[in-house]
Amino acid sequence: MRHFGHIAPEVRKRLFHREPCTFTAESPARLLSAALGATLYSPATRPSLADDILKQASRGVVSMVLCLEDSIDDADVPAGEENLVRHLTDLAERPEADLPLLFVRVRTPGQIPDLVRRLGPAVRLLSGFVLPKFTEERGTPFLEALSRAETASGRRLFAMPVLESPELLYRETRVQTLEGIFRAVDKYRDRVLALRLGVTDFCSSYGLRRAPDMTAYDVQIVASVIADVVNMLGRADGTGFTVTGPVWEYFRIQERMFKPQLRQSPFLEVQAVELRQKLIEHAMDGLLREISLDHANGLLGKTCIHPSHVLPVHALSVVSHEEFSDAQDILRPERNGGGVLRSAYTNKMNEVKPHRAWAERTLLRAEVFGVANEDIGFVELLAAGLPD
């Protein structure tokens, strides 16, 4: 699989200075954690689950979560498990199937070995499990169950803990909770692919819900948690993990209070005024702003609940030609001693030692999402990726 692999090769050649790499479920964890992109959630109860997975893969989705937790009613869990096993078994019997990375969001540790057992050979389609409401106390049994299931199946299985518990939100328990989470995930570091933020649960603890005109960073209590999670769990010194962005809840709005947040000029330059209007009508201007803030705050990838959110996440994850040029300059072997240099674009200072970690992360993102051509911006990437 590859990002933007669903668009024609000649279009990719026009868009990219360096095209996104190909990868598989067996690729190194470091590559996969950066490549998750827009992780699309789907209730495991969907009657056409197998076909839905194939359809989304054909439209550019590279990671999906089949959910047995909050997206379905408590009473539907047994039926959801049965549906999940049946459809994954069906997919495993289709040799031509081109699948995304597949994860299952479970409710209890015991579901992990049970589902792995019930899937039998079809477990080869799974990349791992999403672990809800993760703390050291609640999360460790999930990680232990994952380890046992991995041993029993002979299949590499990753964990994606969801950080969404009230203990993480409350000021008086936050640092202690984060320290415990770090101990738990550090012990299983080789199997923790990414940490996911459950911002909807954070908001629920205070009866809040952000409007489509607002990003998660406008809700100060949520922004403070994101900052502390990145501070303690997302460091670039080798101890950190990939932390993914929070879900965007909206996909169409009827009325807005504030002006749209998308400038007109980038769309006018490439004659894409209708695209801008469509994005605004579907609350995508708020989503695009939040994705930009995710990146600025150290997050990569995003939880998505609607297929229309996938392309914006991927388009804004592509490395610009300018970013790529700066990162390459900073990481040249002759720069190992440090120093300051003017960027090739002559518009900024690149300070080698302080910017090295940024440059390394940028080149990893460039590997999986590609590098745009010098004259290509996010509008062209969005327009090219839209279905006909």
From TrEMBL:
Cofactor: Mg(2+)
A Pfam family matched in the record: C-C_Bond_Lyase
GO BP: oxaloacetate metabolic process
Record's keyword annotation contains Nucleotide-binding: no
Protein name: HpcH/HpaI aldolase/citrate lyase family protein
Positions of Mg(2+) binding: 201
Molecular function per GO: lyase activity; magnesium ion binding
Lineage top rank: taxon: Bacteria
Gene3D superfamilies: Phosphoenolpyruvate-binding domains
Residue ranges that the Swiss-Prot or TrEMBL entry lists as coiled coil: none
Keywords in alphabetical order: Lyase, Magnesium, Metal-binding
UniProt xrefs under InterPro entries: C-C_Bond_Lyase-like (IPR039480), Citrate_lyase_beta/mcl1/mcl2 (IPR011206), Pyrv/PenolPyrv_kinase-like_dom (IPR015813), Pyrv_kinase-like_dom_sf (IPR040442)
PANTHER family registered for this protein in UniProt: CITRATE LYASE SUBUNIT BETA, LYASE BETA SUBUNIT, PUTATIVE (AFU_ORTHOLOGUE AFUA_4G13030)-RELATED
